Amino acid sequence: MKKIAVYPGTFDPFTEAHLDIVKRGLRIFDDVIIAVAPSQRKKPLFNLKERLTLIKKSIKALSNVKVEAFNGLLVDYMEEKRGVAIIRGLRAISDFEYELQMAHMNRRLHSQIETVFLMPSEQYSYLTSTIVKEVAFFGGSVKGLVPAHVEIALREKFKIVADIME
Ligand code: COA
Which option is the CATH number for 4-125: 3.90.226.10, 3.40.50.620, 3.90.380.10, 3.40.50.300? Predict the structure, then answer.
């Protein structure tokens, strides 16, 4: 039986740290599904369709990875996909408390599903989607922190925002 892992998140936008986690996940699991949550409450910069497109382009060279949107409870989605583990990236201690809460709650909701924490490469240990957006908004370079097409998408997005604000 194939071991399927689900890597859930908002991915607004997908960064090199996310890609790094996906690649590490593939060393352990047969298939990785990147499950994109709408996360409307976070008012994402990129809509769901845009986020899916950016991720698909980022993982083009990888086999055994799929990208999908999901709605509702993660554990229900896991069951539907026959996933055995949830992958979450863990960067620093600051991530830990919230991640622990989520992992425990998911275990309470579904005792058969494990959460696996993976550390991204050291060079991405400070990288978050929020910080990438902040830097790009003020015109700073995010080269090397996000795939090239994400960098372009960020530039275009903030150009539109700047035009509206003028
Ligand atoms: N506004 C905008 N962006 C924010 C934010 C905010 N207030 N807070 C965090 N972020 C960004 C960060 O930049 C961070 O980026 P990263 O992906 O580079 O780490 C990212 O959002 C992290 O947010 P976080 O809440 O840790 O995870 P997530 O949004 O990537 O994923 C889900 C959370 C989707 C996995 C989780 O909410 C979930 O499973 N939802 C489904 C419903 C469910 O089952 N809930 C019960 C779970 S116990």
Answer: 3.40.50.620
